[in-house]
Structures are given as C-alpha cells and as structure tokens.
Amino acid sequence: xxxxxAATPPQEKSVTVGGGVDERTIAILYRPPLAxxxxxxxxxxxxxxxxxxGTKAAEMDAFAARQGLGAIRFDYSGHGASGGDFRQGxxxxxxxxTITVLDHLKPERIVLVGSSMGGWIALxxxxxxxxxxxxxxxxxxxxxxxxxxxxxxxxxxxxxxxQRRALVxxxxxxxxxEYSPEPNIFTRDLLEDGRRNQVLTGIIETGCPVHIxxxxxxxxxxxxxxxxxxxxxxxxxxxxxLIRDGDHRLSRPQDIDRMLxxxxxxxxxx
Length: 270
Hints:
Blueprint lengths: L10 E7 L6 E8 L9 E5 L9 H13 L3 E4 L16 H15 L3 E7 L1 H15 L5 E8 L5 H6 L5 H10 L1 E4 L8 E4 H9 L13 E6 L7 H9 L6 E6 L9 H15 L3
Parallel strand pairs: 3-4, 3-5, 5-6, 6-9, 9-10
Antiparallel strand pairs: 1-2, 2-4, 7-8
C-alpha cells in the first residue's frame, strides 16, 4: 500500500442511538479508505473509561492514514465526546452503540482492534455479526489485554463485604483508579448485564484470524486470563504474543509496533 505523507484529519461524525430518555449521541472519528482500496476498515473498540483519542487509538488511525486504509473510532455513551450517562453503561448498551456505528458507516470488511473491555465487546460483536444476514464481513481481530467477562471473572469474585453492601444499597461501588483522579464506578446493572453477555462459556466462533497481545506484568487483567480466552477460540488462526515486561496499557513505542504489526498482518491476510 502507498505511504501517504500528508494525511488529512478524520471526519467528525455522530449517530443517535435509542429514543426518548434513552437517547444518546455517539461521537465518531471516521477516516474514509483511499479510493479503490478493497482492504478492510480498521475499527477501534476502547476500554472501560477510555476514549477514542488515546495513544493506541490515535496510532491505529495514523497507521490507517499512512496505508490508505479506512478507520473508525468512536466513544461509547458516557465516554469522551459522546452523550449519555456513564452510570447507565453496560456491555449490551455499548455493544448496541458499536453495531449502530457500523450500520451507519456501512464498511464492507473490518478488522476489529479491541483494548481491554473493547476485546470483550469485539468478541460479542463477532458473535452478533455471525447471526446477521447483513453487515460487514469480519476479516480479523486484534485483542490487546482483552478482558472478556471481566465483571464476573475479575471483579465479582473479589468483592469486599463493603462493596457488596454498596451494590445493594446504592446500586454501585467506587474503586480508586491508577489511570485517573476520578474513581472507577461499577454499577449493579453493569455486573448483572455482564453475566448475560458472558463469552467464556463455549467455543467463540469468530470466523476470522485472531491476534492477542498481552502483558505479563498486567495488574488489571492477568495474562492467565488471555490464556483462558484461547481455550474458547478455535485452534486455527489464533496467535498470542506474551510481552514479559508489558503492563495493561501496552502503550510504549515497542508495544505500539507490535500492535501495528498485528493489524498489518490481518489487513493483508488472505
């Protein structure tokens, strides 16, 4: 593909999801593919409380610009530039928004790049797309420190008595965040909805190659969680890269290089 030296900025778009009191506006950054290209469009799926302007998302877009690829970034409701109340957020709600964005922009083929919780949403999206007669063809998945089923696998087993009481009495509990001065907020709705969206319950038929990047020093999503995910993926076309000194963010230059190499391999996959 051609290296485009003078990339134009992505287009700012939006789409409305839901109606009435449930209506929210989803902010999108869309980079159209170079005219004539048949390569898949890259779709960024961010993590819990992250937004589409983060380092990895921006680097994915810059890669797309250099290669003449299309790229889609957006913020879930309650995140970044999108509307909606964060405390109403659930996996089902954010998955609905992801599907609406794709239906709005209508890419024919896509590679999903999902970070942390975005990896869970990517896997649920793969399941939903396989059930639909219309919509984009999934050409590949790049999962960065994927956190499928994190509510039931990584949060609920470790709840303190005080947190359980807060869920019952207040409908949520708060937890200090390493990445923000604002605490993480986990709601009862998020946990209950997470159980309905579990994917680590049987073979996950993605229908496409999968590349997982996982840091072994990840304090948020232990690397054994990524290895557990592999048990539920078909044996063929699954690559796992364990980064011995990598943390949860995987945003160092060498981590970005690994991410882009994985993306490039799936874009060019036969």
